[in-house]
Write a structure and sequence with these properties.
Layout: E1 2-6, H1 9-26, E2 31-34, H2 41-52, E3 62-65, E4 67-69, H3 80-89, E5 99-100, H4 109-122, E6 128-131, E7 153-156, H5 159-165, E8 178-181, H6 184-187, E9 192-197, H7 203-211, E10 229-234, H8 244-251
Parallel strand pairs: 1-10, 2-3, 2-6, 3-5, 6-9, 9-10
Antiparallel strand pairs: 4-8, 7-8
Family: Belongs to the glucosamine/galactosamine-6-phosphate isomerase family. NagB subfamily.
Enzyme class: hydrolase
Protein name: Glucosamine-6-phosphate deaminase
């Protein structure tokens, strides 16, 4: 696992955006798996800047969704489809035809989950998947004790996760109780995984993910099983890493970040 320690969230976003740009230069129609929330916003802002400056052509890129609320009507501003269209697809100048996502309004949610797994495979698989991490080590909505072999499925949100997400709604009562999420097994099929974590609140989860045992109790620890996983953290999120100095020495000297 590559662990890259950066100064702050802006630096992390710029680094990851350059990595995505390098991928798009190699593979114009790359399928990019995107995450929602505040953490990845610096990535999307930096990538949009590269596109607008002409540094990279993203017109052929395809976008895949990591998760979706169950039951929010189509077009709801806080559905993850709406968020991705607003924060990623539109700024990059892409069309909605470039977008893949699960149907959170389906009557048969289990069938919708299976259909999304098939759609990802039929699209050639995700080339680069962006991930955030919860304070409890969850990725996507794979909460602690999720199966490390799990596929895209419906999950019940914990009270803590609903409280964390309540800031996007009028009240916690408006936060859905269920989501569709790519499973850990589905996530691990992406060719390159990049996890961005910032802030001291993520430090313990990062340490358990990188240096702890692979365990269902810390779903993100499954990244240790992936042949190409990169963890980008700011100094605060790296504060509990025992090998922080080793990671600084190993990856700060890397001459070409596009090799990530």
């Amino acid at each position: 696992m590559e662990v890259v320690i950066v100064q702050d969230a802006t630096a992390g976003g710029e680094l990851i955006a350059e990595t995505i740009a390098a991928l798009l230069r190699r593979k114009r129609d790359a399928l990019l798996g995107v995450a929602t929330g505040s953490t990845p916003l610096p990535i999307y802002q930096a990538l949009t800047g590269l596109v607008k400056s002409g540094a990279v052509d993203a017109s052929g890129a395809r976008i895949a969704q990591l998760d979706e609320y169950v039951g929010l009507p189509q077009g709801h501003p806080e559905s993850y489809r709406s968020v991705v269209l607003r924060e990623v697809v539109a700024p990059l100048g892409l069309s909605e035809e470039s977008f893949l996502g699960p149907d959170g309004t389906a009557e048969d949610v289990a069938a919708a989950c299976e259909a999304y797994d098939r759609a990802l495979a039929e699209a050639g698989g995700v080339d680069l998947q962006l991930l955030g991490i919860g304070t409890d080590g969850h990725i996507g909505f794979n909460e602690p004790c999720s199966s490390l072999a799990s596929r895209t499925r419906i999950k019940t949100l914990t009270r803590q996760t609903r409280e964390d997400n309540a800031r996007f709604f009028d009240s916690i009562d408006d936060v859905p109780h269920h989501v569709i999420t790519q499973g850990i097994g589905t996530i691990l099929e992406a060719r390159h995984l990049i996890l961005l974590a910032t802030g001291e609140g993520k430090a313990e989860a990062v340490a358990q993910t990188v240096e702890g045992p692979v365990a269902a109790l810390v779903p993100a620890s499954a990244l240790q099983l992936h042949p190409h996983a990169t963890v980008v953290v700011d100094e605060a999120a790296a504060s509990k890493l025992k090998l922080a100095d080793y990671f600084r020495d190993t990856y700060a000297a890397k001459p070409d970040w596009q090799g990530l």
